[in-house]
Amino acid sequence: xxxxxxxxxxxxxxPPLAAPGGGRAHSARALAVLLWGGGxxxxxxxxxxxxxxxxxxxxxxxxxxxxxxxxxxxxxxLSPIRDGIIWNLRMPRTLLAAVCGAGLAxxxxxxxxLLRNPLADPFVLGVSSGASTGAVLVVVLGVGGGAVSLSAxxxxxxxxxxxxxxxxxxxxxxxxxxxxLSGVAAxxxxxxxxxxxxxxxADAEQTRGVLFWxxxxxxxxxxxxxxxxxxxxxxxxxxxxxxARTLDxxxxxxxxxxxxxxxVARTRIVLLCVTALLTAALVxxxxxxxxVGLVLPHAARALCGSxxxxxxxxxxxxxxxxxxxxDTLARxxxxxxxxxxxxxxxxxxxxxxxxxxxxxxxTT
Length: 364
Prior knowledge:
Blueprint: H1 6-12, H2 22-52, H3 60-70, H4 80-114, H5 127-139, H6 150-171, H7 176-201, H8 204-214, H9 223-242, H10 244-250, H11 254-259, H12 264-286, H13 292-304, H14 308-332, H15 341-363
Helix pairs in contact: 2-4, 2-14, 4-9, 4-12, 4-13, 4-14, 5-6, 5-7, 5-12, 6-7, 6-12, 9-12, 13-14, 13-15, 14-15
């Protein structure tokens, strides 16, 4: 009688045979738990440490004490000034940096998979240029009569730009390359409009303020921006995760995805709208912060592979940690002067972008 049957192994006290592929699935789950758990721990530690960095001397226990007190867990012994620095200045700015980094990285991941272009980023749809035009119209020309804020104007401009991209791409056939070309056209159009308004209507002070915002700035943000961007990020991330298997199918091309039962046109519209909405919300709050959505997806793929169910959360965590420390560097490296966040991300992102180009060239 064979001793390899499950019943014989149970009688002999031997461990049961593993199911085929069970070890591999267990390893994949363990890797996912390690990446997500480790990423969340690193993000929490990064936020706590970043809040302590600045002219005012603040410790990590001070940060936890202030946060606990404002959340209703005990009373804080900090002075009102130190408590205000933590809760009203540094904490919302640091959290918004994390949200923006996560959102831009997720948008870049989706765009690169959806368009099958490793060099795609969240701004390929012209959203940032439209947001810049909307912000300039509010700040320089006073559109809205003071009732419309800069963020609201930027969001409206971003939505208008994306609507133009959808209209152009649909008119031209709706294929992937037509979407990209429509985005380039919209980007050039709104960039020209922005430059025209600034050159003809803005004074020196307005020009400096607009330029600083266009390069990406997290200064002066409050809890309302954090709440709005966090809510949009949560909704968009859920939608993207629900389409994770569909994004995996797009990696083999639109024809292959259609053969697997994917509604290519509907999926493309849904995901393009989701990424455009998220990018518009982030740009309206923080300006155009480049290279995060271009570089971080490639770094995340090197860590966890290309499966989007695992890739999207890892990319979000990597983007959040990255932008927290970039913003910390931007506001402290030339203290008391602040460097636009987009400048620092460009200085870091350009060498990484060259590496991406080099890898793309080697694989083609």
